[in-house]
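FAQ: What does the model actually see?

It sees only this:
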Amino acid sequence: MSTIKSQLKRFALSFLAVGAMAGAASAQNLNSGYFTDGYLYRYQLNPSFDNDKTFFTIPVLGSMNLGVQGTVGVENFLYNVNGRTTTFLNPAVSADKFLDDLGSRSRITSDIRLNILACGFKAFKGYNVVTLGVRTNLNVGLPRELFRMLKQGITNDTYDITDVHANATAWAELAFNHSHKINDQWQVGGALKFLLGGGNLSANLRSADLTLGTDAWSAVTDADIHASVKGFKYETDINEHTGHRYVSGAKIDGAGLNGFGMSVDLGGTYKFNKDWTFSASLLDFGFISWNNDMLASTNGLQSFSTDKYTFNVDGDAPNSFDNEFDKIRDNISALYELNDMGDQGGRTTMLGATLNLAAEYTFPYYRKLTFGALSSTRINGEYSWTDFRVSANVAPVKVFSAGANVAVGSFGWSFGWILNLHCPGFSLFLATDHTPSKLAKQGVPLSTNANFAMGMNVQF
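And it is asked to produce this:
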């Protein structure tokens, strides 16, 4: 039984490592800036938004955003026992306490969006922005049953470890955005984006049903990993018990672009009257076509049951207890050993599109104050999420604006804010969509809902 336990732990910890990578990533767009007057990057939230200034980014520093979203955080895995910090695996931490703090499914999602260069200007009867940037999307999903197994170990019980998955995609993006005012009420906009794929990795454990009883053991698994990275190769090793060659690791020999794609942003704004404005946008509707697909797989549904075995007390018999137990151990081991299936040829993946719906109300007794409501929905299969945010925004003077907001959604509650200085010749913003509520002694957020954004640009 130690083999099945070690194989499952290795598989699970690999997914947790991807989650840790996501923790160093950032949020895709700054929703706190959606209603902020003078915020230069509103066009990334809705391409119909324009600016009254020409601007250039300070390379790399134009817009940076560090953070992560998730339903679990450091606080779910670290505990204080007798004055010392320890992990959830410590026997002094009860399984009930650990599992009660987790939801039925743990999720971490994050997107890096780094603008290398951007330029906004008026032309073609509207406002235009040309942007060159790099982006990375990371997602991890883990069922609570997996953590129960890691905490309790293999006991006489049933574990339904279904839909463990992780996905990572990196690409460069060249975007052309145009906003056009139709009349005093309507304004529309769109962006055409050319995508240069850096790489994609998708891992899925679709099924791992384990029934470990006193009189019988059974297991069913189905897993695969798709890797589309230039120079990517799986490393293999041989199981000394079965002679089966399995995937033991991976390496990348060289680097470079590995795919091409396109996407669009679409948006519109409708000014109902002098007090009310409504807007909507669909972002990142597109795809990337990859040049290769390196597949590692269980090669279909793999199953094992002890009912197939009979034991003989005679140590010299072909079906002696020792011989039969070796067969059981080898079959269990093979359940979690992926085969290198080679390059399956090119494949295409869709980007996760985002739908924004918003309404803004201008306070009639102080028209420099507005209130906004923004609903954001990521449409991305098992990685979909929602975020609903209400905000108060003020622009007391021409060169300064600010806002504060509260949000609730798939990742719980959060508080955001933005400070935006836009003087002649220079602009600076500081903001967050998720203000961390608790910090560890080392300054690390205990929750995965935390981010900090800033940017410096030249405008005139």
